[in-house]
Amino acid sequence: MAGDNNTSLVEEWIRGTPDARAYSAHTMVGPLPQVGGVRIVPVMLLRDPISRIKSAYNFERNQLSESWGAKLAKAGSFQNYVETRLAQPGDRQCRNFHAHRLASIVPGPEPELHRAMTGLSVIAAQGVVGAVEKFDETIARLSARLGPDFPTLTWDETRKNVSKKNDAQDNLQLMQVLVDANRADLDLHSQVLKGFQ
Prior knowledge:
Strand order of the largest sheet: 1-2
Structural class: mainly alpha
Oligomer: single chain
Distance between the termini: 34 Å
Order of helices and strands: HEHHHHHEHHH
């Protein structure tokens, strides 16, 4: 996992763009950036892992890309996509994706799920943890967190990159494989949803 850590690149990006106020780092892995004179307000939205994988498959099938994942999605069924990705050493797209990302925030010898739960706490303390399924409520939390520093900030909802339909066929055996491969993500997602009750 140490090779995955790209925190220093994100810190460099922030230092190199001093006029920017917001960054989107979908591919960041590692501890939260530390940049002198800059307050980092991390935002992490989790999604039901099975829905996330189906959406990723549909997105990769339709995107104009020659990446390995896009080629794989275009070449075959959802089942083939999942089975191939699960068989790839180190590929986390279909196996506890969120747990891997969150655990990277808190490096150490503890089990991944323990570090991921701690990572959730770190983000919640400094920023906002939310759920895709609770998007409006998550944005309200973010508005409250940023309000003191950005009192005139307003939000306009725009839906882009949203799956319109799910082409992935549900196969009970495959769904069980996905549940087994994503137990940590299911626990994390459940924990986040409890925070909205």
